Amino acid sequence: MKYHKIPDETVRRLPIYLRGLQYLLDKSQKSVSSVELAEFLHVSATQIRKDFSYFGDFGIRGVGYNVETLIKQTREILKLGGTRGAALVGAGNLGTALLAYPGFGTYGLEIVVVFDNNSTKIGKQIDGAKIEDIGKISELKKRGIKLAIIAVPAEAAQDVADKLVAAGVNGILNFAPQFLSVPKKVKVITIDIAMELGRLPYYI
Amino acid sequence: MKYHKIPDETVRRLPIYLRGLQYLLDKSQKSVSSVELAEFLHVSATQIRKDFSYFGDFGIRGVGYNVETLIKQTREILKLGGTRGAALVGAGNLGTALLAYPGFGTYGLEIVVVFDNNSTKIGKQIDGAKIEDIGKISELKKRGIKLAIIAVPAEAAQDVADKLVAAGVNGILNFAPQFLSVPKKVKVITIDIAMELGRLPYYI
């Protein structure tokens, strides 16, 4: 099935819907209305109907959406079929926490290689992954790894990003509190933890 | 200055603009057009103009926005003046990484207390903060702490959230891969790392 281009803001909400729907399915709920889902996820029902309308119009008035179908279509749109390998750069506290983080599997992601520049860490195993020399990032291309996670200090992040892009990586999840300059074809999602916390005071 | 109610999606983008503007100010740039900012932050210029229009109309056609004024107003809207204390629950790898994370200060946030349920950790200091018994969460009310960060395993997160809400916390930054059910007056921002990475395949 082909879909129209979906706005970034909708793409951002789809994994949130996916998590909520999965929760309902685990509780054996077969169908859900946009109003019910809205209440549950604290998003407006209008927004939910609009977002799902990009998939084609398959909610039934008075009955709602079939939970299982909606999960299947959402996963398909997000291209979450199969498993993709990702590289992690930085084996400090944050990198170690990420390696131990449950739930990557839900989204078909697996950290298959870890890079660090600390010679005392290189060669060691953490959570089943071997830490390799950061100089070997260039080998990602021949290993076919296109996704990477940056968990290095801010001052090292741009250099790491440049090396990743040169090695053919086109999707980066960036945890460094640093704006990354990359070519337009490369998608960067920056998780700036302080920035997220920075949104909270507005609401309280 | 009073502002109109601003949509959540705009509030979400304001810290992104703030970071970009701060970067420009650090490079001594005095003014910026929406087109230039759009190019720089990979957001559409129309979106930027629309978001800033909630502040009142102070961009000057052909000249752009004054960088310093825009920073000041954005910080004011986000209520980022002064310093607010936050509690961190969970002193594992992720919690430790968060404590060492630079940049909270930029957003006027300071982790002033850490809670854990591991008796071998309680009483120890990490990064200048003392780890206290999780049973003492109820004391947050009398200490006037309204913000909290949850960095505990998924299965413990709801219980911790309930305790935080009972102790008067009304803003939670949640790192557990777990949907949290809280009263509507409490704002939860969940950072589900896998979920963020789950958006990447769509783009690549």
SSE succession of chain A: HEHHEHEHEEEHEHEEHH
Quick one: CATH class of the largest domain in chain A? Answer: Alpha Beta
Which overall shape of chain A is indicated by the principal axes computed on the Cα atoms?
elongated
CATH topology tier name of the largest domain in chain A: Rossmann fold
Strand content of chain A: 15-25%
CATH homologous superfamily name of the largest domain in chain A? Answer: NAD(P)-binding Rossmann-like Domain
CATH-level-2 architecture of the largest domain in chain A: 3-Layer(aba) Sandwich
- In total, the number of strands of chain A is 9
Catalogue the unreliable spans of chain A.
Answer: none
Question: Can you list the strand order of the major beta sheet of chain A?
Answer: 5-6-4-3-7-8-9
* Main beta-sheet strand count, sense and barrel state of chain A: 7 strands, mixed
- The chain-level structural class of chain A is alpha/beta
